[in-house]
Amino acid sequence: MINWQYYPKRKEIPAHLKDIVDIFNFNEKSISSEIHFLHSNEVLQKITSSLLKLNYKVELSKRANDKIKVPVLFGMNGRLEKYFDADAYNEEFKTVVEVEAGRAVTNYQFLKDLFQACMMHEVDYLVIAVRKSYAKNQDFQTVMTFFETLYASGRLTLPLQGILIIGY
User: Which domain of life is it from (predicted)?
Assistant: First the structure.
């Protein structure tokens, strides 16, 4: 079963993010971390066609031309000066999707994803998909607990309208 939690919890999940949940539900049998031990790129590959149908730009490979560059800073004459790569990006819905696997929690990749999305130009929503469990750790629960604390404390205001955490 795919699990998910949308933040802030006081708001209902927007329809365009529910579509992302539906993509993971549709592909559950081929991506479930309870059955498979897939790398993040393998999970992304399995959901790519569905994301493309929703007008997401999707990283097709690790080659420079296939990466999705989301602007952060603009320099002289409006030239792109700094960008961060995303696994998928929808310009219309201002949504970035990051699919993580083993290093989501062990290397705090989910925090890097959060930081980068907060810096990206014209990004309002972040989706982070993580394994339910990895190497005896409950990655989905760990990431959820972090965001529960972040939103409950109220000490940090994020520039994002919402964050969706998916456990696959």
Answer: Bacteria
